[in-house]
C-alpha cells in the first residue's frame, strides 16, 4: 500500500500569490477583448490558460511528492538441508525425503509462510552427494540471505555429523532453530580406516612411517589383513586380530626418487560389514631432495621466534636454526638460504652469513636506525622524537610478489605492533605488503616491505610482536592459516634465486582436493625481460592413468591465473606452452589431487548436538520419523506478518510527465483558439 502527498518547502502563501498571478494573466487575456467564441468556450479556454500558467509558476516553488509505501511481509522459514553423503549412507531413502520435503513446503505455503531452502552446496542440489559436511557454512549462507527479512524460524535437516568447520552450537542465531534428526544413532557394524598419519613431505633416501588407525564395531576377535600398495604393486601387508574399538598399525616406506607418490591403504572386507567405502584410503607423499635452511639471529629470546619457527615447521620444507650469541655455544657455520635478523641492529651481533642468502630484517625499539640506514639502502626511516608509535596493519591490494589468503580484512583485527615514529621512504624496486594503519586510517608508511633488484632479495618488518597476530587469528577463525602463509611465503620469496626464465607456469600449491579446482599462475616475458600479456597459452594435464585433458586460455594484465576443476584423485603432470615471437616456450610440473572421503568415516548420527542447538535457540528437536509434528509446532508459535513502511521524495521539477501536462494544456488552448476563430 502506498500514499502520495504533494509538498513544498516554501510557505503556503506563495501558492496563493501564484494563484493571483495566474488568474491576473488569464483575466488580462480573456476579459478585455471581443471574442469570436461563446461565453462557455471562453471560460474553457481561460481555465486551460489558468491551470497551465499556475502549474508552470508552481514549479518555481520546487514542489515534491512525499511517497509513503507500506508493505506486508510474510513470515519467512529458512530450511537448511544437510545433503551430504552420510545422511543417506545407511538409509538410501532420498526419494522419500524429497517427497516429504515437498509436502512440508506446501503445508507452509498454505499456512501463509514463505519458505527459503538452502543446501551445503550452492547449486540447490538434493542428490545427497556432497563429500564434506560444514554446517557453519550452511548457517552463514542462511544468515546472509535472511538479513533484512521477516525471518521467524529455521529448520535444519541433518544427522548432526560435521567433519569441517566449527560446531553449529557455538554460533549466534537470530531465529529459533527447529532441528530434524536424520540418520541412525546406533553405530553400524563396520571396519573403518579412521585415520592415517604420515608426513606429506619426505626426503629422498629417508624411511617414512605411515601409521594407520583401524576402528571396528561388531567384529571382535576376527582377523583382517591391511595392505599398503602403490600403482597396483603391494609394498607391505600386516595381519592383525581385531581387539577393541581402535588399533594402530605402522608401515615404513623408503623413498628412493624425487617426485609425487600415490599409495593406497586397504583392509580386507568381512561378511555383514555395513559400509565398505571406508575400507580403503589413498595417501599422497611428496619426495624432495632437501630442505631450505633458515637461520634466525636474535640478541635475546622472543615469542616472535617461536611463532616464526612454528609456521615454518608446519610445511616440513624448512630446517630452522636459531643463533642467540648470549646463549648459543658457537656461531653457525652452515650455508643458509634465508637469514632472519630479529631485533635487527639492536645490539652487537657479529654474524655475517656465507654466500648470499635472502635477508629479513625485523626491527624493534632498540634498533639503531643509523646502522639500519647504512645497511639497507631501499628502506629509510628518519626518526622524529624519542617515543615509538603503535600501529596496526593495512593490506596493500596491489601487492604482486606473492598471494596471501582472501580474508585480508583480518589485518584490521590484529593487535598493534610498535614501530619507530618518524618519516618513512622507500626507493628502488621495493614493494609494500602492509602499510601502517593509525586508527581507521591507512597511511602510506610501509610496515612490511620487500625488495628485489635481480641480485639481492630483502624484506623489512618495521616492528616486532607479530606472535600476537598468530594468537588473534586463531581466536577469530580457529586456525592461523594467514599468519602461516605470510611467514612461509616471505621465506619462500627470499629463498628463491632469481630466475630469468621467460615463461613460468606454476600450480598454486602441490596439493588440491577433489572438491576444488587446481589453480595455476602464468608469467610471460619478452627478450628484454619485460612482462607481456595477451598470450595464448596451451595446457595439457595428464593423470597417472595416462588420461589427458587439453585447455587453452589467454592471459591479461588483470588475470593471469587459470583454474581446472579436478574431481578425480591421483598424481597429475602438466605441460604449458606459449609462443613468443618465433620461439615456443614450455614449462611443466606436477601436483596431487586427494580424494575427500570424510563422510564414511563416521556414520553414527549425533542427535544430541541437535537437541542442544534447539534448546539454546528456543526451538524444538524432532526425529525425522515425527516430521508430521513440525507444521503444528510452527503454527503454535503464532508467527505474524511484518509491516514495513518507507518514504521517498520525488521532485516534480524532474518529472517529465508534469512538463508533458503543461505542454498539453498550452497546446490544447492554442488549437481550440485556432479552431474557434481566434488569432
Strand order of the largest sheet: 16-15-17-18-25-24-23-20-21
Using only CA atoms, what is the Rg?
37 Å
Classify the beta-strand content into a percent band: 35-45%
- The averaged pLDDT comes out at 84
Helix content: 10-25%
- Unreliably modeled segments: none
Helix count, DSSP H or I runs of 4 or more residues: 12
**Given the helix and strand composition, which structural class is it?**
alpha/beta
DSSP strand tally: 35
Largest sheet: 9 strands, mixed
Shape label: extended
How far apart, in Å, are the first and last alpha carbons?
Answer: 49 Å
Outline the structure in words:
By secondary structure, this protein is of the alpha/beta class. The protein is 22% helix and 36% strand. The chain has twelve helices and 35 strands. The strands form eight sheets. It has a nine-stranded mixed beta sheet with strand order 16-15-17-18-25-24-23-20-21, with helices on one face. A hairpin with a 2-residue loop joins β32 and β33. α2 packs antiparallel against α12 and α8 (467-477) packs across α9. The mean pLDDT is 84.
